[in-house]
């Protein structure tokens, strides 16, 4: 009886979350349309600024830039809220995690160079490809690396910024560590960093780590903060992913080998 009640309660929670997701999707659509229109008109205004007299150009340019920044921020918040409230279904494919990490760093390379940040790799070559959703895993590591970038950017120290990425092959799972020598996380915030809408950034949404945690959880993995690294002045997030996920395959390694061959 208690088990039946528990299942019913879980179903009610799922239904409620699905309803919230539907509402969020409709609301996002209604807000996104005028936002796109505003953004387009701001771009048109930027082009027309060139025809203004010089005495007005600087002042108007600054105001247009400020409006564009706020509009871009709203679109970012809207996108993250929608991603959290109504996440897409997992679409599993065979993926080499090490290749994904290299690709993401290559994508972020212009920003890394601009901020003079060094990336150090320590990737385990013995890790074979696993079944994951590549697009969603891409979002996980993009979020973690951008957090590291921002933490280094906020650190006023003269020490060069360094991000370290390490992958480790365990018997039943793989582990990826993303470390940075940035500002660090204050002790009194550590218990809150995975809470939805909690943020220490002035323009943050508080959804980034929540989305990361949800995606990793849907892959039956874990996301944790490695506190022991703080002695070395590092902030390290650890992602674990099982080598076999219940996606309808008896043996994931056999599936991977068949696809490769």
Short note summarizing the structure:
The chain has 261 residues and is of the alpha+beta class. It has two domains: 2-85; 93-251, Histidine kinase-like ATPase, C-terminal domain (Heat Shock Protein 90), CATH 3.30.565.10. It is built from six helices and seven strands.
Question: What does the model show?
Answer:
The protein has 261 residues and is α+β, with helices and mostly antiparallel strands. The chain folds into two domains: 2-85; 93-251, Histidine kinase-like ATPase, C-terminal domain (Heat Shock Protein 90). 53% of the residues lie in helices and 15% in strands. It is built from six helices and seven strands; from the N terminus they run H-H-E-H-E-E-H-E-E-H-E-E-H. It has helices at residues 2-48, 54-85, 97-114, 134-154, 208-218, 252-260; strands at 93-95, 118-122, 130-132, 162-169, 173-180, 222-225, 235-242. The chain has a five-stranded mixed β-sheet with strand order 2-4-5-7-6. A two-stranded antiparallel ribbon has the order 1-3. Strand 4 and strand 5 form a beta hairpin. Helix 1 packs antiparallel against helix 2 and helix 3 (97-114) runs parallel beside helix 4. The longest helix has 47 residues, at 2-48.
Return residue spans where pLDDT drops below 50 for at least 5 consecutive residues: 1-6, 247-261
- Cα(first) to Cα(last) distance is 50 Å
Determine the CATH topology of the largest domain: Heat Shock Protein 90
The proportion of residues forming helix, as a percent range, comes to 40-55%
Q: What is the typical, i.e. mean, pLDDT?
A: 78
What is the fourth-level CATH superfamily of the largest domain? Histidine kinase-like ATPase, C-terminal domain
Shape: globular
Helical/strand content category: alpha+beta
CATH top level of the largest domain is Alpha Beta
The radius of gyration computed from the alpha-carbon positions, rounded to a whole number of angstroms, is: 22 Å
Number of domains: 2
Proportion in β-strands: 5-15%
Largest sheet features:
5 strands, mixed
> Which architecture name of the largest domain does CATH use?
2-Layer Sandwich
**Total strand count, please?**
7
Q: How many DSSP helices?
A: 6
Order of helices and strands: HHEHEEHEEHEEH
Q: Looking across the biggest beta sheet, what order are the strands in?
A: 2-4-5-7-6
């Amino acid at each position: 009886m208690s088990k039946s009640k528990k299942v019913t309660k879980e179903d009610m929670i799922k239904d409620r979350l699905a309803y919230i997701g539907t509402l969020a999707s409709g609301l996002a659509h209604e807000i996104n349309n005028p936002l796109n229109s505003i953004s387009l008109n701001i771009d048109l205004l930027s082009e027309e600024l060139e025809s203004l007299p010089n005495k007005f150009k600087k002042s108007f340019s600054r105001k247009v830039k400020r409006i564009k920044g706020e509009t871009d921020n709203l679109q970012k918040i809207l996108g993250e809220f929608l991603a959290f409230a109504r996440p897409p279904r997992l679409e599993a494919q065979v993926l080499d995690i090490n290749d994904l990490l290299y690709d993401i760093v290559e994508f972020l390379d212009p920003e890394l160079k601009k901020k003079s940040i060094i990336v150090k790799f320590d990737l385990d070559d013995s890790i074979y490809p696993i079944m994951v959703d590549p697009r969603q895993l891409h979002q996980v590591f993009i979020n973690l690396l951008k957090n590291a970038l921002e933490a280094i950017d906020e650190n006023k120290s003269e020490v060069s910024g360094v991000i370290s990425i390490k992958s480790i092959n365990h018997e039943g799972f793989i582990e990826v560590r993303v470390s940075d020598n940035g500002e660090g996380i204050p002790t009194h915030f550590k218990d809150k960093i995975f809470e939805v809408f909690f943020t220490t950034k002035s323009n943050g949404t508080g959804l980034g780590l929540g989305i990361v945690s949800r995606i990793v959880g849907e892959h039956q993995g874990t996301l944790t903060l490695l506190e022991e690294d703080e002695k070395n002045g590092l902030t390290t997030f650890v992602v674990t992913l099982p080598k076999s996920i219940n996606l309808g395959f008896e043996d994931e390694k056999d599936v991977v080998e068949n696809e490769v061959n």
